[in-house]
TrEMBL record:
Gene3D superfamilies: P-loop containing nucleotide triphosphate hydrolases, Tandem AAA-ATPase domain. Residues 432-600 form the Helicase ATP-binding domain. InterPro entries: DUF3670, Helicase_ATP-bd, Helicase_C-like, P-loop_NTPase, SNF2-like_sf, SNF2/RAD54-like_C, SNF2_N. GO terms for molecular function: ATP binding; DNA helicase activity; hydrolase activity. It comes from Acididesulfobacillus acetoxydans. The keyword Hydrolase applies. This is Helicase SWF/SNF-related protein. The keyword Transmembrane does not apply. It is an enzyme of class 3 (hydrolase). Its EC number is 3.6.4.12.
Amino acid sequence: MASGTKELIVLIRQEGFELDWEIAGDELDNRQILWQEELYEKYREDPKRFLLFLGFAEPTAPLSASLRFLKALAASFVKALAQTPDLEFLREQAVIESEGKDIERMLGDAPYMNGAENLNPDWLETLWRQMNEVFCGEIKTYRGSVAQYFAAQSPGIQPVGRVFFHLVESKEGDYPFAFLATYSSGAGQKGKSKHLPLKNALVQYKEDNKKLLELLATVNKAAEKSELIADFVDSGEIFHPLGLSGVEAYTFLREIPLYEGAGILCRMPNWWKTKANSLRLSVTIGNKVPSRLGAEALIDFDARLSLGEEEMTVEELRQLLSETEGLAFIKGKWVEVDHEKLKQTLAAYERALKLKDKTDLTLVEAMRFQLQAAKILNVPQEACELEISNGEWLSTVVTRLTRPEEIKPIAAGGDFQAQLRTYQDKGLSWLNFMKSLGLGACLADDMGLGKTIQVIALLNYLRTQKRDKAEETEKALLVVPASLIANWVKEIGKFAPSLTYCILHPSGEKLPDGADISSFLRKYDIFITTYGMLLRYAWLAEVTWDSLILDEAQAIKNPGTKQTRAVKKIKAAHRIALTGTPVENRLTDLWSLFDFLNKGLLGSAKEFSDFAKKLQESRAGYSRLKKVVSPFILRRLKTDKTIIADLPEKIEMKAFAALTKKQAALYNALVREIKRKLEAGGPGIERKGLILASLLKFKQICNHPDQYLGQDLYAESESGKYARLREICETIYDKRERVLVFTQFKEITGPLQEFLARVFQHQGLVLHGETPVSKRQQIVEKFQGPEYVPFLVLSIKAGGVGLNLTAANHVIHFDRWWNPAVENQATDRAFRIGQLKNVVVHKFITKGTIEEKIDLLIEEKSKLSQEIIPDIQENWLTGMDNRELMELFRLS
């Protein structure tokens, strides 16, 4: 592994779920690199055993967020295993049950990571059971004791011994608590051991001093660190029931981690274990309906103090400051009195009251408060429980944002040429509701679910609303990668032909020099430009747009680039970001996105960076972060059963690409050459050969100029299809999915493999007609295996039939065979029995070329009879006259 630079990715697969983990680090030393390599090898050797190994391991190198999450799950199992009473007696019969609430909490605290959408309680429970099975299988054949097994795995972790400490409440006045030490005496009825008072051990082992010392080893270890337990041991009281004062009980409760570290399992009052009687500062935001709606609406704010469920006044808490520190019996409950914590909590409460009196919060500030409350109120984590909740009105708003089905539906507007699917209708209503609140929205639906059509429907609805009210139409600025201009133009023309648009790019229309911007703006509904053009068209930042829409919004993930800064200079009343990738893969990406959508929601870059660093230490902040950002993100997955019910299992998409200047020049030159040869005339066979040879040349030019010219460079910038391929595959990579890329040309399979290896940062595979038959099965097995192989490039003749490649859920037809039956047969390498996901099929088409024109012909004829177009080698094209052929060949 290259020093500190290589990222290792493995898909952990379980019952149809996939979750990937990464090991990545910056400039690791040799020791850290060796440990990461060991970790990787452990996984490759045995994925099931790997998790148990991870639970015992003490990392000596940085772990990624996803691997830290798996480490936390495994460590929880190991802790539960270590604290299992009578483990030595149970051994391979041990059943370690997971706590349901712990699993739910772990899901809530899961970091943003690839595959997070696949997490659910059943998946985690399955991994938990696997670790249990692995332990039982290993301990069954292990010759030593359980303690020795633990020591061999990790010297820092030891199972609990046979001694237990119990603390319970008592009704004795001077001694309100009782202490008792017990021990496990061995297996009893139904495999469960009997627990006896520790004094019984003096009788049981009076003839065997060695066994008595072994039994008391954990007690002696605790006594070395605790004066309280040392006194009990020295006086012999450890062997008898004891009444404890409140002061002694408080000492015991605070020292429980110390006793457990020594190997003693402790039973304590439930109110201490669950912190049920803890001091709490509760803040409620947004009970009342604000006087006006929108992002600047003022939200009310309230705060209160409580001990457990009992609300407390400031005077009552100040009275507690006069109490002795420790445990106090208040309102029928035992509570902890810590003067420093009380002072800190009271100070935070007073700050909350000042904030309430000073001003109400805007909607964005109210949402941000949930994330930054501890910092804003300056409440140390250990001082009290800080509870932030939404009031009645704000809860209703957040519920609508997170559950679009509860938003009043709207229509897509007049002259809309499509029937939206149910989930797309909900997306349209959600986008409009977000706009009505003035809140930036991130539409993050999976690739293939139709983000583009939902936005077009919104713009068409807004145009209709304005027209009906005789108001000036809204002006939307749409910023897209250059390779997507053709896609948007095609979709607008298809679904909302009444929407007028202007392309602000050298490849299309642009603002004439010296033109009046105001009159120019009144001509169109949508202005389409690219990220790169924002710097060239400086006037775009001088206009206040009604809507600013970013497609492939991951383009602004790096806040420091010129491109991102240019985007954020654009003024707009409403902002929409579209992305098919998980927007949460990297926390810095998340901050940059929300700095665009709703500035200030996640604080400044430094504030969020500080927050992110704390997440490295404690995952608890992830649940708060999700609570804050989730209302602004609408993400539907193809794996969601409510979406699947409304989707075909195979989603076909046309991916339009624009020709580069070099491609266009070569294309036009070939058109002129063909025209000259056709006009010169020739025998029918010669003419047919010319046409078929020309078709292949056109396809080569559309793929890449170097394929047509017979060169080997294959620069990415010279092919529109390469740019489109990168965008699609970056999304596939961000989700750690796999793709089949079909081409009819063997000569481009190698260049495609090299290009895709750079995009995916991983090597893929190639299969074509010259691949030895003996190696083909090996290629299939590697692609289908557990190790992440992101892509397989296939020639359509060699790979289009017979292979089972269900590990892929994306199929790209890089160039078209122009025979639907052949293409469908190739697609079915992934779309077949054993496929657990919806398959997305991307059919590449270069705009304005013969590829687009033949695609339209196929589409029209397919409406009459499915798959009516015969193979290209037959006469359906060669039978055209010269005029028809030139119209087909001509670059539009």
